[in-house]
Amino acid sequence: NFLKVIKENNDSINAFIELNEENALKQAEAIDAKIANGEEVGSLAGLVFGIKANINVEDLIISAASKTLENYYGSYNATVVDRVLAEDGIIIGITNMDEFAAGSSTETSYYGPTQNPKAMGRIPGGSSGGSAAAVAAKMCDISLGSDTGGSIRNPASHCGVIGFKPTYGAVSRQGLLDLSMSLDQIGPFAEDMSGIALALNTIVDYDETECTTLNWEKPDFTKDLEEKSLEGMKIAICNDFIEVTDEEINKTINMAINKLVDAGAELVEVSFDHIDLCLPTYYLINYVEFFSATRKYDGRDYGYRIEEVCGDEVLRRIKIGSHIAQAEFSGKYYKKALKARSLIRDEINAMLENVDLIVGPTVPKLPHEIGDELDPMEMYAYDVLTVIANLAGIPAGSIPAGTVNDIPVGLQIQAKPLDDEKIIKAMSVFE
Ligand code: GLN
User: Is the ipTM value over 0.85, yes or no?
Assistant: First the structure.
């Protein structure tokens, strides 16, 4: 059925850039056979996944939506992919994205832009726009994306689906093509909370091949889905987040927050002094780490030399990243950015000492029409509310809050490191 929907609608939506049709059908048949034989099946049996084009899947083209890697076949499975397959999840194809995940609109893909299925003509957000659109257009049950500064939450918000960025280190990045390795985290999209919880149960785990993964007693994320009571939870709204957000979006967000209060949460107001530092700090760190990550694309091991074929945004990051990474500038830019990152992390963690969750808009403005020419600063402005979680390593999710002019708007919920489960609990109130 999903293949049928993809064949009917993918030409117009462009959520998938590669299909895994034959293998997906084989996998489905194998699961059917197991069931027929009375054998045990995995927790994802029959659930169909789309995988972002920067997560390695063996034998599929993993291009990160760049011409640089247009002929690169995944040579192994990312840890998350192995885990999904081990639980009998079916991989139906590879989803579109901004080139190397550097963007917020999915317009910079070498394979052309993805449409927003809930607001045709507009961007789906990014960089995991294909993964969000695939779920929104009912082309798969669950998809995986990566979130470095909002790339799961931003397209989830614009496409009216649920997206979740786990605590940094909760999910293995082994097999992910890095954008910025101290910020990147893989996470799921789904239309319902059970999809999100099942995916997290599968992909959250310690991985001895990935040194930043955390070895902790992980919860069963499906456990709280039915409870729907937030009695005893303290949630904060932050005035500084509201101030940077369009008024219409704030109205919708307030209605969603009322639902959390109706479920028993106590609401308090907080402020965040370092909001102005967030974007400059994030982009500086991102440029430097991305420049470093791209040195392997020198045309010898994989495809083309990146500088010769990439788009403008990727080239901008490489050029500026190389400039600010020079030893003589390190005190001026990079070390300063690391100091600013500590200030941001400390302020948000201090806030989370007193409350369980911080709630507010995911994205401060509505998605633009595909083709509208935004300058880099206008594009980066989409990220002001999402980069904080990556800079601080905290978990954050986006859940549909309602619409403004028929365009979906997401509510962002953030928590302390490893309090991912509390976010799941709050999100389940919306079902
Ligand atoms: N829009 C942000 C950027 O361009 C975030 C991207 C992401 O999370 N991958 O860097």
Answer: yes
- Which H or E element spans position 240? helix 239-243
Per-residue pLDDT of 161-178, as tens digits, reads 999 999 999 999 999 999
CA dist 317 → 66, 102, 114, 123, 154 (Å): 14, 9, 22, 22, 20
Residue 151 Cα: closest atom of ligand 1: 8
- Each residue of 296-325: pLDDT tens digit? 999 998 889 999 999 999 999 999 999 999
Instruction: Examine residue 180 and say whether the peptide bond preceding it is cis (omega within 30 degrees of 0).
Output: no
Alpha carbon distance 200, 210 (integer Å): 17
Q: What is the CATH number of the domain that holds 39?
A: 3.90.1300.10
Give the C-alpha separation, 261 to 23, whole Å. Answer: 46
Which parts of the chain register pLDDT below 70? Answer: none
Domain hosting 295: range is 2-216+224-430
Catalytic center residues: 52, 127, 151
Based on the structure, what is the number of domains in the chain? 1
DSSP codes joined into one string, 6-20? HHHHHHHH--EEEE-
Residue 183 Cβ contacting ligand 1 at under 6 Å: no
